[in-house]
Amino acid sequence: MGRVSFAKLLTLAAFVFVAVAGAPARGEVEPPTVGGVQSGANSTGETVRGWLIAPKQAQTAQISIERHGCADCVWLVTTFCLRDTGTGGPMGDHCEGQWVGCEPDELRYQVYLTTPTTPSTLAAVYCQAAGSGVISEASVMPDIRRYLDQISVAPPAISSWPGDATLVNLPTYFAATPAAAGDRIFGGLGYVMTLNVTPQSYDWDFGDGVTTTTTDPGSGPPGGDVTHVYQRAGGSLVTMSVGFAASYSLTTPAGTLGPLPVDGVPVRSAAGALSLRIDEAIATLTR
């Protein structure tokens, strides 16, 4: 056998070391076409409450669609660890440089679901570029609030019975016709959002120091629920604004969620106004 130089021996040893270090751990199967290494150490991950949609390529992408009504769902999104280099799953702490079956510029994520009746279970596994991935209520709510703040609703029309003039000590009936708000549609990274606002509450000011809030827009006599009795004759300016409840639907490659409510009364109309004359009736005796 010929003599091998010391430099060649070093080169051969380095080649063997790189090949072994880059191979999957014992018992792990290397993906046939894609591969890379985890580029960051694992942590406890991101906790998401409510609904969550994993990317379309996730093994169980429909799981959050099926459970979107679960207000008590808790999701843990965490990077992936191999068991023989540290504890697997959400408690792993030795992910740096470990082999994952993803593209070189992607990380492998795992999603665990906990409900009041189910302990933490693996719900989805997917590959995604760092900083993107699941869509959750928390991730889209800032966009929802921002678009709701941009919705301007015209003042409602106000009607009264018996008309533009009424009498003291007798009920005056009121009704409101809210302006239509319509749907708002906007897009985000991997989803299309449809916002819908509908009348929910009516804030009345009868112009004599009396105010009230109703959930009924009112109607004419005899069945109207919004009435007021004036005690003094004169003029009064009746004003009323409408509070709109909002709901949203979310369409993604994995399916559609919604409509789901937005807490509170996020949209309010400008106030409508009605000028009203209050007369005092005088009784007279006739033969």
Q: Which stretches are low in confidence, meaning pLDDT under 50 for 5 or more residues running?
A: 1-35, 59-63, 82-93
Strand/helix succession:
HEEEHEEEEEHEEEEEEEEEE
**Average pLDDT score:** 74
Distance between the termini: 145 Å
Instruction: Report the biggest beta sheet as strand number plus sense, adding barrel if it closes.
Output: 7 strands, mixed
From the spread of the alpha carbons, the general shape counts as: elongated
CATH topology of the largest domain: Immunoglobulin-like
From the coordinates shown, what is the CATH architecture of the largest domain?
A: Sandwich
Structure description:
With 287 residues, the protein is mainly β. The protein has helices at residues 6-22, 63-66, 137-149, and strands at residues 36-37, 46-49, 52-53, 74-79, 99-100, 107-115, 118-128, 135-136, 157-161, 165-167, 171-177, 183-188, 191-205, 211-214, 227-229, 234-252, 255-268, 272-279. It folds into 2 domains: 31-133, no CATH class; 137-279, Immunoglobulin-like, CATH 2.60.40.10. It has 3 helices and 18 strands. The strands form 5 sheets. Strands 10, 12, 13, 14, 16, 17 and 18 form a 7-stranded mixed beta sheet that branches.
Short account of what is shown:
This protein has 287 residues and is mainly β. Helices cover 12% and strands 43% of the residues.
Give the SSE map:
Blueprint lengths: L5 H17 L13 E2 L8 E4 L2 E2 L9 H4 L7 E6 L19 E2 L6 E9 L2 E11 L6 E2 H13 L7 E5 L3 E3 L3 E7 L5 E6 L2 E15 L5 E4 L12 E3 L4 E19 L2 E14 L3 E8 L8
Parallel strand pairs: 10-18
Antiparallel strand pairs: 1-5, 2-4, 3-8, 4-6, 6-7, 9-11, 11-15, 12-13, 13-14, 13-16, 16-17, 16-18
